[in-house]
C-alpha cells in the first residue's frame, strides 16, 4: 500500500440520516470483518466531530457526565488550544482496536472559538498529522452543519462519505452538497473523493427507492455506491443495548449490509487512492 492511513469523513448537512450509526458500524466492521495484508487487524481512530457526542457515548458506553469527569482533553480543547496535542486526546473505547478523540457539548462552540485563527480550516489536519501513522483508518463523524468544524474535517480527510435518506432525497440538497465539496476541492492540494450511498432505505418503497437511485446515478456516476443501508430497528436496538450491528446476537442482516458496503468502499479506495 502506497498510502498508509485513510482518513474518512462521514458527512451530510442533514441530521438524523444515520451518519453516526454508520460511522460506528463502519469502524467495527473494519476491525472485525477485514484484515491488513499481513493478517493482523486494522487499528482505527474515531474522531467525534459533533457536539452531540453520539459517537463518543456509543463507543465508550459512558454517560455524558462520566465523559466530562474522566476525560481531560476533548475536541474543543484540541481545536481551540494550540498546546493541546492529538496524542493527549485519544482514549480507549469499548472496542478492541478502535480508539477515540471524544467530543463533549462544548464542541458546538469550537467554530466561534477558532474564528480568529489564521488558517482556521486546517487545524484538524495539522493536529492529527503527528498521530496519523499509528492508524490504518481515521473516521470523522461530522455534525450536520456547514461550519468550521465540518470544513476542518473536509480538509483533513481523503474521502467524504455521504449517507442520503431516500425519503428526504432532494436534487437541490444533493447539488448543494456537491457544491460544498467542490468548494473545498478548489483549495485542496489533492482532491477529496466523495461517495454517496442510501441510508435508512425502506425496502417496502421499491418504486421510490428505484427513482432515487436513478437520480443519484445520473448525477454522481461512479461516485454513487449502489450498496445501501436498510431501515431496520436492529440498527437502533443494537447500539441501545451496547452492541453494534456487527456483533448483534440475534440478527445478522445489519452485519452483512455493513460488511458489503465497507467492502465496496475499500474497493473504491484501492481503485482511486492507493
Ligand atoms: N439504518 C437505520 N435504520 C433504522 N434507524 C436508524 C438507522 N440508522 C440510524 N437510525 C436511527 O436514526 C436516528 C438518527 O441516526 P444517527 O446515526 O444519529 O444520524 P445522524 O448522525 O445522521 O444525525 C437514530 O435514532 C438512529 O438510531
Ligand atoms: Mg450524528
TrEMBL record:
Species lineage: Bacteria, Bacillati, Bacillota, Clostridia, Eubacteriales
Biological source species: Clostridium estertheticum
UniProt name for this protein: ParA family protein
InterPro entries attached to this UniProt entry: AAA_dom (IPR025669), DNA_Partitioning_ATPase (IPR050678), P-loop_NTPase (IPR027417)
Domain AAA stretches: 7-189
Amino acid at each position: 500500500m502506497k498510502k498508509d492511513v485513510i482518513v474518512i469523513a462521514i458527512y451530510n448537512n442533514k441530521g438524523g440520516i444515520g451518519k453516526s450509526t454508520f460511522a460506528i458500524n463502519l469502524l467495527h466492521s473494519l476491525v472485525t470483518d477485514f484484515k491488513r495484508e499481513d493478517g493482523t487487524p486494522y487499528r482505527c481512530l474515531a474522531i467525534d466531530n459533533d457536539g452531540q457526542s453520539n459517537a463518543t457515548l456509543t463507543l465508550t458506553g459512558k454517560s455524558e457526565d462520566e465523559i466530562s469527569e474522566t476525560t481531560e482533553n476533548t475536541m474543543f480543547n484540541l481545536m481551540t488550544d494550540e498546546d493541546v496535542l492529538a496524542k493527549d486526546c485519544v482514549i480507549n473505547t469499548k472496542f478492541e482496536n478502535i480508539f477515540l478523540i471524544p467530543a463533549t457539548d462544548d464542541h458546538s462552540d469550537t467554530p466561534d472559538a477558532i474564528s480568529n485563527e489564521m488558517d482556521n480550516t486546517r487545524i484538524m489536519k495539522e493536529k492529527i498529522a503527528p498521530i496519523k501513522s499509528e492508524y490504518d483508518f481515521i473516521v470523522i463523524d461530522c455534525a450536520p452543519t456547514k461550519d468550521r468544524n465540518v470544513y476542518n474535517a473536509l480538509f483533513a480527510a481523503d474521502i467524504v462519505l455521504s449517507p442520503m435518506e431516500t425519503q428526504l432525497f432532494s436534487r437541490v440538497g444533493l447539488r448543494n452538497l456537491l457544491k460544498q465539496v467542490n468548494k473545498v476541492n478548489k483549495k485542496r492540494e489533492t482532491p477529496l473523493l466523495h461517495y454517496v450511498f442510501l441510508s435508512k432505505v425502506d425496502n417496502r418503497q421499491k418504486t421510490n427507492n428505484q427513482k432515487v437511485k436513478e437520480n443519484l446515478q445520473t448525477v454522481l456516476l461512479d461516485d454513487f455506491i449502489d450498496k445501501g443501508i436498510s431501515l431496520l430497528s436492529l440498527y437502533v436496538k443494537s447500539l441501545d443495548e451496547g452492541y453494534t450491528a456487527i456483533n448483534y446476537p440475534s440478527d445478522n442482516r445489519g452485519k452483512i449490509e455493513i460488511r458489503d458496503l465497507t467492502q465496496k468502499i475499500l474497493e473504491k479506495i484501492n481503485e482511486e487512492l492507493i
